[in-house]
Write a structure and sequence with these properties.
The chain is built from 3 helices and 10 strands. It is of the alpha+beta class and 201 residues long.
């Protein structure tokens, strides 16, 4: 599923950018210069790839998207090889403040992330009314060459409650680069709105 998803994103992005910017990306099996080669991306010249295809050896499918990007790190993220699927990463978090907390897990891979777990609030005598919640944030390079930011809360628990949550698979459709700066944060409106401990992945 991840490979199919990556191929769909690459094809859609390449078509959109070619039409919008008047760029010619060349054949599907294209030779890409640095920074991709400098970072170990194996790219075969067009002729070699076609020869490999004729011989029955499946070549690596590579699409190059050319966009104005703000940083060198962002430029590196623009070259994506569908045959190279990022590894799954998992983690856990346990964050508390004086009147509540969250325990949960996280799974992320390339362009996708998901969190789940439980948020709880201590009894009302701890700090009065208000809710505890967990917030997931990250940023990514979008297809316009800018940086998009995601920040959303889950699992709102009133005092004395324990609430389960599951974000489901979060998959930004406009992501042109891998998700970065993934952070889970415990926030609360007990007393006044504030965010406390966090954990980055």
């Amino acid at each position: 599923m991840a490979v199919r998803h990556g191929i769909m994103k690459i094809c859609a992005a390449a078509a959109a950018m070619t039409a919008a910017l008047g760029l010619i990306t060349g054949p599907a099996y294209a030779q890409v210069a640095s920074p991709a080669q400098a970072h170990g991306v194996q790219v075969s010249p067009g002729g070699s790839a076609h020869a490999a295809a004729a011989s029955g050896t499946a070549p690596k499918l590579l699409a190059t998207i050319v966009l104005p990007v703000p940083t060198a790190q962002a430029r590196e993220a623009m070259v994506k090889t569908a045959a190279q699927v990022p590894d799954n990463h998992t983690g856990s978090y346990s964050l508390t403040d004086s009147c509540g907390g969250v325990n949960g897990d996280i799974l992320w891979q390339g362009f996708d992330v998901q969190i789940w777990g439980e948020v709880w609030g201590n009894p009302p005598y701890c700090g009065g009314s208000g809710q505890h919640s967990v917030w997931l944030s990250f940023y990514y390079l979008n297809y316009l060459g800018g940086i998009s930011y995601f920040n959303k809360g889950y699992g709102y628990a009133n005092p004395g409650q324990t609430v389960g949550f599951n974000s489901g698979l979060i998959d930004p459709l406009d992501a042109a680069g891998l998700l970065a700066g993934i952070t889970v944060t415990l926030c609360s409106s007990v007393g006044s709105w504030h965010c406390g401990p966090s954990k980055s992945f």
